[in-house]
Amino acid sequence: MAKQLHLWAFLQGIGHYPSGWRHAGARPADVWSMDYYRHVGQLVERGRFDAIVFGDQLQSRKGGDRTPERLAMPTLDPMALLSAIASVTSHVGLVNTLSTTYWTPESLAERFWTMDRMTGGRVGWNIVTSAHPDTAWNFGDEPMPEKSARYRNARETVAAAQAIWRRLNAERGTSPQQRPVFVQAGQSGDGRDFAAHTAEAIFCPAATMEDGIAFRSDLRARVAAAGRDPDGVKIMPGLSFILADTQEAAMAKDAALIALADDDLCIEYLSESLCCDLTVFDRNAPVPAEAILEATILPREDIAKVLERPVSSGMSLLQFATTYVRTPRGHNVFRGTPEQMAEMMISWINAGASDGFTMQPAYMPGELEIFVDQVVPILQARGALREEYPGTTLRESMGLPRWPADMGPADMAQAEAV
């Protein structure tokens, strides 16, 4: 019997490509309307996805104190969007992103307990610690805590929230899942250790199958070392895609989409990613690495890694920017036919490179519509994707045990001690 894969939909903004909002199949103005989210939610549910994921950010989106003019990246409140989608769907999971650094255990627990109860058990929590330094100034005059401190606080916050959920379930009647499914996306050593002790689904970049195998093997080993069952944690790398009837047509479609990202848009997208206003530099000169490292408000070591290859290869700033938009955020980008995409996804599952995929359509909603209409039936015919949901909760869709069976001994002890 074929291994079954899991599908998540990461539906931030207008699509994964920074130029996606300019495509004829995109509907950028519709992101402000309920009809758009009704359509997207029901489309994902028709594709038998486990869940929809919305990210969040607690600071303005800008590059070095300059608001981009050519990027379409609306970041609306994910809880409001997911609540709206919940009202027009019945099975698909709803994963919200909230920070342990700037939300208290009490507010997190109440928020998720209510939504889990109201949706019949379809809620997940994408646990983040926040990373952008500008976030801190929206919550007072203290600077952002350093990374290891943020993760220590995250462990304490999650444990405290779990104690509150136990109390709420005892006082008000148990919510369908007892607590939300825990999702995490940290890539650092601290992030991976936190995920190994806490997460039930992990979102990650994996540009190649080899990258996926390495990441999944590392996390499964860490999960086992934490006293948990590795099979109770799903590894869900991001996958963007461009689909067409032939390989050649898909490549041409991709090239046309990339061409919509003019030079100014590419520079602005890279500025936003590096948190440094690159418009002040000569775009035809070599990448100004030292100036970028001096100006960025992100950790220098993280930005230095991003700059290493373009600097060593002698790229100009514009060449770096136009190359960067071709592999947004370092995720795998598939270009080909629906049949080829289904085969690629199945091969990754069989090779142990992932347990499923977090789908990131190049533009919305057109490319997602093509995937659901043309790739999903192939996966189902191959026995790699269910035809019906196994139950009504997100845990059932993901094949996860009920809490607290999924917690390791150390986590149980910590939660009970709160």
TrEMBL record:
Matching SUPFAM superfamilies: Bacterial luciferase-like
One Pfam assignment: Bac_luciferase
Keyword Protein biosynthesis: no
Residue ranges of domain Luciferase-like in the record: 25-353
Keywords per UniProt: Flavoprotein, FMN, Monooxygenase, Oxidoreductase
InterPro entries hit by this protein: Diverse_substr_monoxygenases, Luciferase-like_dom, Luciferase-like_sf, NTA_MOA
Transmembrane domains' residue ranges: none
Family, as annotated: Belongs to the NtaA/SnaA/DszA monooxygenase family.
PANTHER family per the UniProt record, alphabetical: ALKANESULFONATE MONOOXYGENASE-RELATED, C2H2 FINGER DOMAIN TRANSCRIPTION FACTOR (EUROFUNG)-RELATED
Designated name of the protein: LLM class flavin-dependent oxidoreductase
